[in-house]
UniProtKB/TrEMBL annotation:
The keyword Transmembrane does not apply. It comes from Zobellia amurskyensis. This is TonB-dependent receptor. Pfam families: CarbopepD_reg_2, OMP_b-brl_3. Residues 461-897 form the Outer membrane protein beta-barrel domain. The lineage of its organism: Bacteria, Pseudomonadati, Bacteroidota, Flavobacteriia, Flavobacteriales. Keywords: Receptor, Signal.
Amino acid sequence: MVHFQKGKAGLLFLFFIFFTSTQAQSSEAISGKVLSEGQEPLEAVAVVLLSVKDSTYVEYTITDVNGEFKISEAQKGDYILNISSLGYISLYKNITYTGEALTFGNLTLVEDTYELEGVTLTAVVPVQIKQDTIAFNTNSFKVDADDNLEELLNKIPGLEIDSGGKVNAQGNEVTKIMIDGKEFFGGDPSIVLKNLSADAIANVEIIDKKSDESELTGVADGNKEVVINFTLKESRKNNGFGKVSAGGVLDNRYFGNLNYNKFSSKTQFSVIGKINNINITGSNIQDFLKNADGVDGDGDDEEEEQNSAQKTKSLSGYLNTGVAGVNVGHEFKEKESLNGDYFYNYSKNDGSSVSKRITFSNANNFDYVAENEYVNTKNDHNLNLDYKNKSNPNNSLIIKGQLMSDVINSYSNRMGRYFKEEELSTKNDNLSTVDRDRKRANLGINFYQKLRKKGRSLATGLKTNFNRSTMKNDQNTLITRQINTPKESVKELNTIRDQKLNTSAVNFNFKYTEPLGGNHYVKLESYMGNKIDKENVYQNKITVAAKNEEEILKYDYDHNENNYQTRLAHSYTAGKINTYAAMELQDIVRSFGVVDEAATVTDRLFVNPMATVQYIPKRGRKCRLSYKKNIRTPQPTESSTVVNDLNPFSIRKGNPNLVSEKIDALTLSAVVHDFKSSFSFNTRVQFQYTKDAIIKSVDVDEDYVRTLSYQNNGIKRRLNTTLGFSQKIKNLGLRYSVRNRNFFNTNNAIINFQLNEVTSKDFLISATLENNNKGVIDLKAGATYSVNNTSFSIERDLDRKYTKQQYFSMLDCDLSKKVNFNTQFDYFIYTDNAFASSENIPLWNATVSYAFSKQNSHVVKLLFIDLFDKNIDIYRRSTTNYFEETTSESLGRYFIVSYMHKLNNRPRKG
């Protein structure tokens, strides 16, 4: 009954959004027409409503091709109407909006020509629109004393940060974040947004950046990326700034943060430091989770999850983190710069989990339960270098390099139990210690040359990757069988495995473009690549018994792949329409096998068509349709001729006779952002059809030993769709947004020599309602509902359905100029028919902060985390022949008192 009521509440929430958005529509609006002194209509002029009290942002729109504008979402009240455009003197009007139509008729902007000693004097403009850039002045948005850039972006219209940390601007994913036009810690949003203070920023620029090739040649190719650039306040330039904070409580929870920056016109310098034991990584958390083998309870590296929506692991247990980073950038001359950063991350994650698994293998179905204790530590070093030289108008050179080193130590104590028809049949206790040392390096060089004839150009690129990894695995396995034996049988295995992996990849590309006239171009593109994988293994397995039987496995294995691609293409660029069509000839030569034995050699030739059509009718609208045929060669593990039996219950065998998959991919995407109506819409549909599909072949014997191999069999179908839209609710001062994601995947698998078709369907919908004017109160509420259905052709009674519901609310308000209160409440509901389990988890966090001193340079904060003390986390996955649900302990409730001090927060003199 509880689940029904919660689901019903989510439907009522969506109905409320629909009802209010349809009932609150009104024809009353603030409107007018903007003209130049010559009485010509001005397009893309920013029209902004500002609060009379503090001049903070309320609403904005832009004029159309006729110079007309309309703001129909404003609430009744007094405002400042600001009309501004680059090159014109801004116009300000005090207005009173009563809810009835307010029409200004023609409004004239005067050109800004007044200069004093070469310096143009302009007023502070809330919103400025240039050719490919929209700039927001941060003085028009209220930020708290200790807010980072993440909090600032959440208050700017058209910008959103999703749960995965991705930034979306007006329906487009932001690919890079810069400070004063320069990369900051490699442009990684997770580092930039969580460390720089919001009050150091003067403007936030959303830029539709052209490709490097297009910037050089001046010929649009339709390939743009959305970039956010933060420009610093003048008071922060040539003057070091930052903040230091620390906090702790009686139950040994603590944190400390340091951030210091100094920027000049030529040099950029930043330092970051973090230390805590409250489960905050301070860097990209997904990089940590990829190596956290104990988090999910029982990880099979060779397994690919069928459910795309559940691929991201969650961080459970207890995490200790230490982070240090430094970024240095220098501009030698205009458009020539060198940027480098170093990042160190120490993390230790320990905890416990319980995994429940249902495994099906035709007539031999069984259940598996595992209790797992784990400790994972990681020491990571990361050095990045980025050199750009675009000072010559005829060519450009870009060099990027990276050095990485990480040492990972993992300890796991897993107690597994196999059940047949609810009766215990086998125990598998595994104690494992893994030490991994990995070194990686990559270098990329790209050179673009513009030739004499307009549109004629050439480009070359070189990309190299080197990866060296050594891993030592020491494990003890105790197997107690109570089935298929006359009496209880105990077998103990001690296994030591030393493994060295060396991977190198070198890729070279060459592109030549020749103009044909009339915006038509022909392109010749060539790609050459070589990848070498070397594996050296020494494994000693001892069966502990009277004779201590010893089994030694030792081999050197090489996998060499050469890839040659030649492409002839035609492109057409005419501003609104961009097309690209090509035919590619691809030759792939593979050679692999154990050293000193006859190698397996394959040579395959493929013909790959591809085409793209992009239509951009005007600013804020874009539609793109693309088709491409891709070739995926078998991975070294899939075609390996060596059996991997490190885990006695999970054995992997390659198939050297595998052939490459042929993938036809069709993608359609559309983005609409209407500045006049504040409506934002984006969608993406991708369909993949794979022939000669590489599928899994799983054999499970009566002793629960699972042997995994691969075959080419049949086809795969995969369909991904995403849909999102948001709009203001007129006259209510609210905005709603709806997000939908669907995933459909079907492919074959062979389970105990029987062909099985596995179908996975995912559906997710979320809705959010929030207020527009966040000057004093920031309020947000919403719900998310997701469901996974997995079905099998062999045994329909094992079809699985599980759901996750989340209801959330957030309130951030200023109780006074010095006191801020923030609270967040989340309620999760997990259901799963496979395990007949249900979990309801409420999470409640709250903070109270007090800023003191004249410039609010000191902030004292009290944090209350997980007030209900629900220290639990759930992670699920569906694979080829089993379901799994892992329940882990998490940090739980704690309280922290913290103090933050801003460095050099005094305003500059003069």
